[in-house]
UniProtKB/TrEMBL annotation:
InterPro entries, per the entry: Bacilysin_H2HPP_isomerase, Cupin_2, RmlC-like_jellyroll, RmlC_Cupin_sf
Stretches assigned to the Cupin type-2 domain: 39-106
Ranges for region Disordered: 78-123
Domain of life of the organism encoding this protein: Bacteria
Signal peptide: none
SUPFAM superfamilies, sorted: RmlC-like cupins (SSF51182)
Organism: Bradyrhizobium japonicum
Identification of the protein by name: Quercetin dioxygenase-like cupin family protein
Lineage, opening ranks: Bacteria, Pseudomonadati, Pseudomonadota, Alphaproteobacteria, Hyphomicrobiales
Amino acid sequence: MSQKDEFHNIDDPSDGLFRDLAAGVTTRIFSGEQAMLSVVTLAPHAQGTLHHHPEEQWGVLLDGSAIRVQGDEEIPVKKGDFWRTPGNVPHTMRAGPDGARVLDIFSPPRPEYKKAGSGFGTT
């Protein structure tokens, strides 16, 4: 494998493994050995499905605004905010009026995200 294969662009819609997560919510996934990145795009007012998984997850709001639903709380987030979601904590995201783009980081990589498809996996 060329080292060039290890370089990606966050704004290239053709880069990464595509998954359709929910109505108005898509992601491009980049998987390594110990971590996985997911660039999630949410249409205005789109919301993901409340779900949980055993992997630890960090998120960074890259663009737009959103409400982070985590556990039994709803927390407004703005560009530049980031958060940690421990394993097995129920969570989702609801985009604001301009939509949102989020970089999620999983450790270890989520097995169900290593292939194209649809849905969030574990619920």
